[in-house]
Amino acid sequence: MNNTSSSTTNEVLATIMSHRSIRKFKNEELTPFQIETIVRAAQMASSSRFMQAYSIIGLTDPALKRELSEIAKTPYIEQNGHLFIFCADLKRLTVMGTEQEKQDMRMMLESSYLYQIAVIDTALAAQNAALAAESLGLGAVMMQSVNKDIRRLDQMLALPEYVVPLFGIAVGVPDQQPEVKPRLPLEAVYSENRYPSESDMREQIEAYDDGMRHYYQTRSENNRDACWSRSHIDLLKMQLPVGSMTEYLHDKGVNRS
Amino acid sequence: MNNTSSSTTNEVLATIMSHRSIRKFKNEELTPFQIETIVRAAQMASSSRFMQAYSIIGLTDPALKRELSEIAKTPYIEQNGHLFIFCADLKRLTVMGTEQEKQDMRMMLESSYLYQIAVIDTALAAQNAALAAESLGLGAVMMQSVNKDIRRLDQMLALPEYVVPLFGIAVGVPDQQPEVKPRLPLEAVYSENRYPSESDMREQIEAYDDGMRHYYQTRSENNRDACWSRSHIDLLKMQLPVGSMTEYLHDKGVNRS
């Protein structure tokens, strides 16, 4: 469980290894310089075939932020220094094409193959953005919850075909200092040449669950009796209506075939 | 086009802003310490609901690396300091469940909703890994091309249900020093409160295309006459057989509904 003890030999590793999600921010807006730095950092991530298949939208309109926060029951969607919405974007690739070319591109644009590439591009950029923010002394949290009512968010942002919001990142001056959360044992995540055996995996998860139970019971805020594997099994058994996401993706022209 | 001039006020930003993909490595293997540092850095990325829904497999078997390199016609799949394969992994979440629970989880595991979360988790971790490598003075390149024959790679790594290889990262001591590649104008990627208008987008892409034509003509290696938007339109018009990816995902039990 002692993941954070790996030697942090430089400032980059020190920033990466001390990451924790910040969910409470001081009432201070980001400066234009901070916003620009974060976006330019995002842009420097690798991109498959250099497609740069993402868009970032800063949601600054207080009424829209409030509405989104109320839909998601997530106060830090409203209360933060800046809210970035990261969207997978295959639309930009088509803009300079003729009408005929737009038709001809449709088959590939609608494929799960290309949508997956856009999702990966977007997340790579987002992780750079989060680290850039943290390097500036800011805190950040990534949130799926901005998508609680994904069609409403789509409408708010006037997203065209082939553009899909994936998650938000709230950034700001931290007003809390939570502990770093212990990660899975390295051996549960990394193996050489082949996927680990089921029995090895069970053993590692059991050890992790023990450690996480202790972490959840003793951490400074939001204590509870929980362990990692059980909480996920209980969640996944709930059969939530996640199909609405699939329908939305189809309506946006992506992940269709 | 002058994206890289944004002030790099700390080592994290300096590392992020000087990223370039390295495709030629010296014949030096990574040390166990370097490999561990990279994996632990990957693990510290944010993860949706803390699912940690990814696995990383180091491909070290020379015969397998050679085979994969030949399939993909990508020499740096074989010639590098270390090859990491990043996989979306929803399997680990199920391991501690009973047989009945595994059945009950199936609906959510098969959803595009959950698969998308796993893809995002994997890419967030991967970007941390790449930056950690770069911070150690190593170079890296992310590659979809390890998936050229995705079923063969799946078989090589003995990947179970719900585990899907997304891309590789080759890491090593750089044996080339390519230029930093100019990114899209910030305004083409970032907007506030709503997606940019089509006419604004066209204007920004035109300016970028001009700059990129110059970049491709004058860069130190692999010169060519190309521009950003046209090369992607031509690629996407090709109607490549990308549906085989969709079938593979369905066979793995993900992105089904």
From TrEMBL, chains A, B:
Residues 16-172 form the Nitroreductase domain. GO terms for molecular function: oxidoreductase activity. Keywords: Flavoprotein, FMN, NADP, Oxidoreductase. The keyword Oxidoreductase applies. Belongs to the flavin oxidoreductase frp family. This is FMN reductase (NADPH). It comes from Evansella caseinilytica.
